[in-house]
Model the fold of this input.
Amino acid sequence: MNKKGLLVVYTGCSGVGKGTIMKEMLQKESSLRLSVSATTRDPRPGETHGKEYFFVSREEFKEMINNNKFLEYAQYADNFYGTPKDAVEEMLNQGLNVILEIEVQGGLQVLEKCPDCLSIFIVPPSMEELENRLRGRGTEPNDVIEKRMEAAKTEMTFTNRYDYVVMNDKVDTAVEEIISLIKKEQDKRNS
Ligand code: 5GP
Done:
């Protein structure tokens, strides 16, 4: 039987560059799988149902909550986001390392439920830089950016609950750092 994979909670404020780091990590690490979340937010241009997210209505999301389909879920900037439980469990049972790219509150729920997971919090070099990145992305209107900056200030107060804090100054360096943290954790568990 396969050894169970490692569950990695990967969080940080919106706009910090989690997605960019993630794309590189997935290319470099063949044993790593990204969990695809469900969300009630509208798809951005280029996003596809089932790839970036499962885009669902509020009613469908509520039904998933009632049917206990989520490992965790959270409301974030007026929308709901949740991690489908069964898919994650299946991949872990296949021996794959599963990474959850989720916001901070959802991350804390997973830390409670799965205390043996590896948890990583990505921080920006500064809050000014975070705002520049959010505005530079050009995907959200002003009021949404303001909401996300407000959320970011609160989120940053939870860094101490996570195993590791990684600064995203240069993407390549952050990717190397996270991959080495995952390897170190695996070696620790295998020894
Ligand atoms: P975005 O709308 O920019 O795709 O995502 C907004 C925030 O929700 C990001 O911080 C993202 O990591 C987080 N997020 C994505 N999927 C989930 C999920 O399943 N659960 C939780 N709690 N947060 C999620």
About this structure: Strands lie at 7-12, 32-34, 37-39, 53-55, 70-76, 79-84, 97-101, 118-123, 164-167. The chain has a mean pLDDT of 94. Residues 14, 18, 37, 41, 72, 74, 76, 81-83, 101-103, 106 surround guanosine-5'-monophosphate (CB under 6 Å). Residues 171-190 form the longest helix (20 residues).
